[in-house]
Amino acid sequence: MVISYLLSSMIPWTRNEKGFMLVLGASNIGEGLRGYYTKYDTSSSDINPIGGINRSDMNDFLKYFAHKMHLPIFDQIASEKPTSDMSPITAGHQPKLDEELMGLSYLELDLFATLRKVDRMGPLTMYSYLLLHWSHDRDMTPE
Which pLDDT tens digit goes with each residue over 47-105? Predict the structure, then answer.
């Protein structure tokens, strides 16, 4: 993100223009509720258009948009597994998936977001709900 901010300041300067550009973020609500971010990652941006959306809803929208606009690249983006590893993928190096690093699936994070934002549960109520449901059958849908 530091490089993004540097470039957003330098691009107008290289074109002999005044001003700056805004940096867009790409972290979602589940990652924010989980605390899966660092100081200089996609959560530190000027605008985060998908900050209040869970990953499942975003993927559903991308798939809809891909078919509606006949742009298959958005379908491919929706099917990619998220990883925060910035090194190139090579034969000997496979990046760790975000789900592995967080210890939670995006389906579980989406449930957190639904319980918190839609059902308006606080931390204690969410904990009680999840303890009851996950201890029995790992049910992923709120009642």
Answer: 888 888 888 999 999 999 999 999 999 999 999 888 876 656 677 777 788 888 888 88
For residue 57, the Cα-to-chain-centroid distance in whole angstroms is 11
Q: Which CA distances in Å does 124 have to 69, 77, 121, 131, 133?
A: 43, 35, 8, 10, 14
Same-domain check for residues 112 and 93: no
- Over its C-alpha atoms, the chain yields an Rg (Å, rounded) of 18
C-alpha 127/C-alpha 132 separation (Å) is: 8
Range of the domain at 26: 1-53
One-letter identity of residue 115: L
